[in-house]
Each structure stands twice: as structure tokens, then as C-alpha cells.
């Protein structure tokens, strides 16, 4: 038995933040000292490395669970199913609902329960829970849905990835420009044809790597040190990803039985354009090949890094023909992959 994505949907917030909107920010070094060069240089270097020109922030009256609800509605509609037939709602996020203008995370009740309530699903056997797995959370949710369905515990699952990272960033940290908000959702069920998941890979590296992403104080020494923001050791993450993600992708592809030349698209977590390009190039080098020019659709340029939402949103945009010069057709083989806090890595090979 294989599982397939029977429906997909995403919610892209309407508030667009351009790189130029950071021109008046007071960026500081970790010790609180000012940069030795102007913001125009900071922003220029940032764009050159990440590829990000714009990002989306959630509207002030909306929380992560609201974005998730909108994406879930679209996925349910796309799958043309009765939501009462959903057996599991798996909601991947990292920071819960953080209301605009506040600093406290709210996860009671769980965000999955909030979405079930908003969808007005009455079936008590629709089990709803949250999944904390860093940026690879949505893919891990799909892998869990695969296990539920194959074991007979479920026939249909709703897997969501949603985040409002703009509300947990330190405005004085230049890394804050990376993060964005958004949501993606998918209906997962058993496949009745040749489409579906062919193989998967998942791993957690938690010895030296556990603290590469963490919560820390603002770089502004005048702010409350007990108020915490998302922080990362970017160079360590970059080196970790380049070493380990291509190997995981290779293991996953080999387990599928699909030849590297038959792979049509790679949908990778939209973390950093240069890092993603380097991962893909190293992946192909493991097969002594050169990466095809159009193998990797990208959305980071205009949407930024919305963590768990990037991969399902990318897939939704791809199949709707909204990524320039990118398309897929029935029977194409795709490789989904992600890396993030944990440090966690996962991937799956999928026949569309």
C-alpha cells in the first residue's frame, strides 16, 4: 500500500515586507555593538546569500492556527472530501499561536484542536495533535500519516504546517530578515493507482547539533534579557546541511528504486537559496552527475522562510502553475526534503 497527497492547499499572507523595509532597522552584533557598515550593505549581502527579496507576514488579527485553518479548507476542497471522514489532524509548528504585539506562545488547547474546532468537525474519533519537529515538521507529519494509514489506524489524515515566525524574531538580529509567515496543508490517504510515496528517510542529530537553533535574548542589551527570540548559528547549520542532507536524499532515492535521471523535481525546504543550491549540487555529485538547471522550484525569493509551511506551499504553487518556468505532470517523480531545528532531516520520494 502507498499513500498519496489527495488534496493540497496553502495560505500566503497578504502583508508583503520588502528588503528595503529593513533599511531603518538598528542591526547589532551579538555583543550589542553596531555594525561597521550601513544597512544597504547588510541588505545587499543578505539578498546575495539567501535570495530573499520579499517575505510575507500574517495580518495582525490572525494567528498561526488561523492561517492553518485557511490552508486546511483549501486542501479539503481540493481533495473533495467530507471533513468528518478525517481520522487524524497532524499540525506541525514550532511556536504555537503568538498573537500580534505579544511575546507569549499559546498552545492550550493544541493548535490542531483549534483547527478541528474551526472546521466544525464533530467526529470525536478525528484525533488532533501538534507536532514539534523544526522546519521538517510538515514532511514528518506526512511520514506519520503514512504510518497510521499503512497500519490500519487511519484511512485519511490532514497534515498541516503553519508558522508566524515574524512574531518571534529579534528586530536587531539581521537573521530576522530570513523569516516569514504562512501555512500549507494536505489531505493524505491510500493511493489506488501508481501515484504515491515510494520511500522515505528521517533522522535526528542531537549531540553536537542540538543547539544550532535555539531561543536567546535580543542583541539589544537594553531590552529585557528574559524575553527570548529565535536564534541560530548559521554557519554551523550551513555546514551540517551540506554534509548530511545530500546523503539522506541519496539514501531515500536509492530505497525508492528510482534512477537519478528519472527524478523530475526536488522540493526542498526554502531556507536559503545558496544553501539549497549547494545541497542539490552535492546530491547530484554523489551520483557523479550535474544537477539539471530546472530541477529545484523556488519560492523563497518572494515568500521568505516560513519554516514548516515552505514545502507544502511550494508544492501547492507548483501544481497550480504559479512558479515561473516550472511544471509537473502525472507520473513525474518528486523528491521532498527538509532540514531544521533538532537537528532534524527528512525526505520522501513521491510519484505524482
UniProtKB/TrEMBL annotation:
SUPFAM superfamilies: Thiolase-like. The keyword Transferase applies. It comes from Flavobacterium turcicum. Residues 253-352 form the Beta-ketoacyl-[acyl-carrier-protein] synthase III C-terminal domain. Keywords: Acyltransferase, Transferase. This is Ketoacyl-ACP synthase III. InterPro entries: ACP_syn_III_C, ACP_syn_III_N, Thiolase-like. Residues 129-203 form the Beta-ketoacyl-[acyl-carrier-protein] synthase III N-terminal domain.
Amino acid at each position: 500500500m502507498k499513500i498519496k497527497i489527495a488534496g493540497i492547499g496553502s495560505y500566503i499572507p497578504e502583508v508583503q515586507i520588502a528588503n528595503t523595509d529593513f533599511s531603518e532597522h538598528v542591526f547589532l552584533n551579538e555583543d550589542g555593538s553596531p555594525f561597521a557598515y550601513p544597512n544597504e550593505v547588510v541588505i545587499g549581502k543578505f539578498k546575495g546569500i539567501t535570495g530573499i527579496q520579499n517575505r510575507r507576514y500574517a495580518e495582525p488579527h490572525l494567528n498561526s492556527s488561523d492561517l492553518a485553518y485557511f490552508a486546511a479548507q483549501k486542501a479539503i476542497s481540493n481533495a473533495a472530501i467530507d471533513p468528518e471522514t478525517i481520522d487524524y489532524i497532524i499540525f506541525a509548528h514550532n511556536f504555537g499561536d503568538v498573537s500580534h504585539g505579544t511575546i507569549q506562545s499559546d498552545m492550550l488547547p493544541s493548535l490542531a484542536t483549534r483547527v478541528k474546532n474551526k472546521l466544525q468537525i464533530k467526529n470525536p474519533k478525528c484525533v488532533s495533535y501538534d507536532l514539534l519537529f523544526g522546519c521538517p515538521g510538515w514532511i514528518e507529519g506526512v511520514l506519520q500519516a503514512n504510518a497510521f494509514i499503512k497500519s490500519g489506524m487511519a484511512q485519511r489524515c490532514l497534515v498541516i504546517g503553519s508558522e508566524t515566525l515574524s512574531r518571534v524574531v529579534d528586530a536587531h538580529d539581521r537573521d530576522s530578515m530570513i523569516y516569514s509567515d504562512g501555512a500549507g496543508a494536505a489531505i493524505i490517504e491510500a493511493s489506488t493507482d501508481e501515484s504515491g510515496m515510494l520511500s522515505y528517510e528521517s533522522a535526528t542529530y542531537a549531540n553536537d547539533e542540538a543547539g544550532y537553533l535555539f531561543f536567546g535574548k535580543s542583541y539589544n542589551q537594553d531590552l529585557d534579557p528574559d524575553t527570548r527570540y529565535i536564534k541560530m548559528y548559521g554557519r554551523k547549520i550551513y555546514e551540517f546541511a551540506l554534509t548530511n542532507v545530500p546523503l539522506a536524499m541519496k539514501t531515500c532515492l536509492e530505497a525508492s528504486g528510482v534512477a537519478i535521471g528519472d527524478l523530475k523535481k526536488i522540493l526542498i525546504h526554502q531556507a536559503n537559496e545558496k544553501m539549497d543550491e549547494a545541497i542539490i549540487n552535492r546530491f547530484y555529485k554523489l551520483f557523479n552527475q550535474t544537477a539539471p538547471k530546472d530541477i529545484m522550484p523556488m519560492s523563497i525569493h518572494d515568500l521568505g522562510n516560513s519554516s514548516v509551511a515552505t514545502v507544502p506551499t511550494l508544492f501547492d504553487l507548483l501544481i497550480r502553475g504559479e512558479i515561473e518556468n516550472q511544471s509537473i505532470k502525472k507520473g513525474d517523480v518528486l523528491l521532498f526534503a527538509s532540514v531544521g531545528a533538532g537537528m532534524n532531516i527528512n525526505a520522501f520520494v513521491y510519484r505524482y
